[in-house]
Design a protein that fits this description.
The structure is a single chain. With about 180 residues, this protein is α/β, with parallel strands linked by helices. About 25% of the residues lie in helices and about 30% in strands. The protein contains five helices and 13 strands. The two termini are about 20 Å apart.
């Protein structure tokens, strides 16, 4: 299925000025084309269209993967532990099983996706955390920035409106949307 993601602006691969009313044509897991929305819809009139406010660009690489996912506990909303990640003594006081680490990592990954993150830096050590990251679609990188938006590349990008992420797409899958 073809999907066109369009926003007010699209960041160009060459670093030039953003393209107004730019769009990304996604086919499966890859970017099939990048360009003006009108041109892409004219060439692919049956494609599904997703309209976003803001700017489409490469997603973010979060440099604090181990700190956020292996040295912080993301509480379940049903727990009486608050809504912010626990670290230090508060974390040490918890009975952290491998299953609990995995559940925490899944909640942490959701927070990262909501920030436009498409990759975290590694290395990660805990098998349950690594599994949660891989299942989400995030990649574990070692200082590599996400690739630019160009035909043939993985359909991995984020859309930001002001300072807020409105959508995160990884390998063609819409994994986060604000609205």
């Amino acid at each position: 299925m073809l999907t066109i993601h369009t926003a007010d602006q699209l960041l160009r691969e060459d670093g030039g000025p953003p393209l107004p009313a730019g769009a990304v044509l996604v086919e499966g897991r890859a970017i099939a084309a990048v360009g003006a929305y009108e041109e892409l819809t004219a060439a692919h009139p049956t494609a599904r269209v997703r309209r976003w406010p803001g700017v489409i660009g490469p997603g973010l690489l979060n440099p604090d993967g181990p700190e956020l996912l292996e040295r912080s506990y993301h509480p379940d909303p049903r727990e009486d532990l608050g809504s912010e990640p626990l670290t230090g003594e508060a974390l040490s006081a918890l009975d952290m099983t491998e299953a609990r680490w995995g559940a925490s990592a899944r909640r942490g990954v959701q927070r990262l996706l909501a920030q436009g993150t498409v990759a975290v830096s590694g290395p990660l050590q805990r098998p349950a955390v690594i599994d949660a990251v891989h299942r989400s679609g995030l990649t574990i990188e070692h200082g590599v920035t996400p690739s630019p938006l160009r035909p043939g590349a993985d359909a991995t990008f984020a859309v930001f409106d002001a300072t807020e992420c409105v959508a995160t797409v990884i390998r063609g899958r819409l994994l986060h949307r604000r609205r």
